[in-house]
Design a protein that fits this description.
Largest sheet: 6 strands, mixed
Shape: globular
Number of strands: 10
Strand order of the largest sheet: 4-1-5-9-6-10
Enzyme class: transferase
GO molecular function: N-acylneuraminate cytidylyltransferase activity
Strand content: 15-25%
Order of helices and strands: EEEHEHHEHEEEEHEH
Radius of gyration: 19 Å
CATH class: Alpha Beta
EC number: 2.7.7.43
CATH architecture: Alpha-Beta Complex
Pfam families: CTP_transf_3
Keywords: Nucleotidyltransferase, Transferase
CATH superfamily: Spore Coat Polysaccharide Biosynthesis Protein SpsA, Chain A
Length: 229
């Protein structure tokens, strides 16, 4: 059994009602549900939420909400792995045990069915515990600077001040879209960012964190451009 879990609690603060706020004309979470459905990979597409309104929207767009997430797993400090493990344990209590579970973020409108399919294939081919979406940093992280308490600047790695950009190792970061994992790895709370994971590399133009109103506006511009491109 393959299970998709979409975490979507109701208590978002920086962008109120973020998970169901209209994004390009549809509730944000609908885009993640659509990608999961279009992939044809999952026996169940489950939204894990503590919120009645989110539950209703999720069901309207074709997801299942077979349980309400407990308050203890719905605060600002609960990690993704705990939410996924809770869903797995719920299915186990019903007599169903998924083999593979993919956590798809509710605020990932750029996630695609093809990338989900590619992630599953990479997980199978590699024998790893996890496969998740990543993208490259646009600027060499070795030449990053920070602001001091005095309002000046300081390099994190000053030894690379004169190093040519093309001579620096490329760096990647979590794209925040999806995380395929084996059930045993989720239950054991194994670290996702480790040598037991393989990267599903995405182009930078299809990756956007959405944490502020400015992020939201930028993401909508990018999304519309991709739809018409």
């Amino acid at each position: 059994m393959k299970l998709a879990i979409i975490p979507a609690r109701g208590g978002s603060k920086r962008i109120p009602r973020k998970n169901i706020k209209l994004f390009c004309g549809r509730p944000m979470i609908a885009w993640s549900i659509d990608a999961a459905r279009a992939s044809g990979l999952f026996d169940h597409i489950v939204v894990s939420t503590d919120d009645i309104e989110i539950s209703a929207v999720a069901k309207a767009y074709g997801a299942e909400v077979p349980f309400m997430r407990p308050a203890a797993l719905s605060d600002d400090y609960t990690g993704t792995s705990s939410v996924v493990a809770h869903a797995i344990q719920w299915y186990r209590a019903q007599g169903d045990m998924p083999d593979l579970v993919c956590c798809i973020y509710a605020t990932a409108p750029f996630v695609s069915a093809a990338d989900l399919q590619r992630g599953l294939q990479m997980l199978a081919d590699s024998g790893s515990d996890f496969a998740f979406s990543v993208t490259s940093f646009a600027f060499p992280i070795q030449r990053a600077i920070k602001l001091t308490e005095e309002g000046r600047v300081q390099m994190f790695q000053p030894e690379h001040f004169n190093t040519r950009s093309q001579d620096l190792e490329e760096a990647f970061h979590d794209a925040g879209q999806f995380y395929w994992g084996r059930t045993a790895a989720w239950i054991a709370d194994k670290p996702i960012f480790s040598t037991d994971a393989v990267p599903v590399i995405l182009p930078r133009h299809r990756v956007q964190d959405i944490d502020t109103p400015e992020d939201w506006e930028r993401a909508e511009w990018m999304f519309k451009a991709l739809q018409t491109g």
